[in-house]
TrEMBL record:
Listed transmembrane segments: none
Domain of life: Bacteria
Annotated Gene3D superfamilies: 2,3-Dihydroxybiphenyl 1,2-Dioxygenase, domain 1
Coiled-coil region list: none
Alphabetical list of InterPro entries matching this protein: Glyas_Bleomycin-R_OHBP_Dase, Glyoxalase_6, VOC_core
SUPFAM superfamilies hit by this protein: Glyoxalase/Bleomycin resistance protein/Dihydroxybiphenyl dioxygenase
Pfam families in alphabetical order: Glyoxalase_6
The VOC domain, residue ranges: 4-114
Annotated CDD domains: VOC
Name under which the protein is recorded: VOC domain-containing protein
Amino acid sequence: MALEWEQVIVHSEDPVALGQWWAEALGWVVVHSSDEEFEIRPAPDRLPGLDFVRLDESKKAKSRLHLDFRPDDQDAEVARLVAHGAQRVDIGQGDQPWVVLADPEGNEFCVLGPRRQ
C-alpha cells in the first residue's frame, strides 16, 4: 500500500480570511474557495497543501500539531511575518534557536534557525 500526503487540515472560525493570510504569508496559490473551506498549495499541482475548514469554535489550548519553516534569514522572515500579522508567542519553549509565532487565529508555528552543518 502507498500513501500520498495530500494536505493538512486547519480548523478555522473564518477559513477564507485565515487561508488567504497563509496564502500571502507563504506565497502559495488558492486551489479551492468556498464559505466553508479554503485550500492552498505551493503550486496548483503540487502537494501537500493546507485546507482551512470552518469550525465554529475558538482555539482553546496550545496546538498539538504545528508547522515548522526554515527560512534563509530567520530575523528577516520573523520581521516579515510579524508585519503581516503574526504574533510572537511563548508556549514554554524557553531559550531556543527557533521563534514561535501564531497566525491571526492563534495557531502556533515555528520559524527555525539555520541548518546545522
